Amino acid sequence: MAFSSKLGSLLRQKGQTPMTSMFNSIRCMSTSGKKLFIGGLSYGTDDQSLKEAFSGFGDVTEARIITDRETGRSRGFGFVNFADDESASSALSAMDGQDLNGRNIRVSYATERPSGPGSFGGNSGSRGDSGFGGGFRGDSGY
């Protein structure tokens, strides 16, 4: 709902809104602009070192490495939350493809992962996506 009202207000503004501005607004609204997916992490990277690596771009509110439930070992990816969209955007631009603890990391905006029955493994063994993008649950359940 917020998406459609924001889009409507962009279209109703007096004067012409440049198309790039409108598309950037839509892109930011369709992703969690403050939450980044970090992939390709070294298994030795922990929450604190991930936070330190990204804190130079702005206020990091949370940095979390996702671990295996059974072993407690890192799964090689995590999420970084920023206090504002601009910091997240700067971090994405600067850190994507860079070396962190001996590994080239992938950084992208985190996308919300569908929840509920059938959202995991219920698609004939296919995840239904390209395997990138680092989905997360909007309920802070990662």
Radius of gyration from CA coordinates: 17 Å
Number of alpha- plus pi-helical segments = 4
Shape estimate: globular
Helical content, roughly? 25-40%
Summarize the biggest pleated sheet.
4 strands, antiparallel
Q: Please give the alpha-carbon distance between the first and last residues.
A: 23 Å
Report low-confidence residues grouped into runs of 5 or more. Answer: 1-7, 19-31, 122-130
Whole-number mean pLDDT: 77
Strand order of the largest sheet: 2-3-1-6
Range of strand content: 15-25%
Q: What this model shows, in words?
A:
With 142 residues, this protein is an alpha+beta fold. It is 30% helix and 21% strand. The chain has four helices and six strands, in the order ααβαββαβββ. A four-stranded antiparallel β-sheet has the order 2-3-1-6, covered by helices on one side. It has a two-stranded antiparallel ribbon with strand order 4-5. α1 (2-12) packs antiparallel against α2. The chain is globular. The two termini are 23 Å apart. Mean pLDDT is 77; it is low at 1-7, 19-31 and 122-130.
Show the helix and strand layout:
Elements: H1 2-12, H2 19-30, E1 35-39, H3 47-54, E2 60-67, E3 74-82, H4 85-95, E4 99-100, E5 103-104, E6 106-109
Antiparallel strand pairs: 1-3, 1-6, 2-3, 4-5
Which properties best describe this structure?
single chain; 142 residues; alpha+beta; 6 strands; 21% strand; globular
Compact overview of the structure:
This protein is an alpha+beta fold.
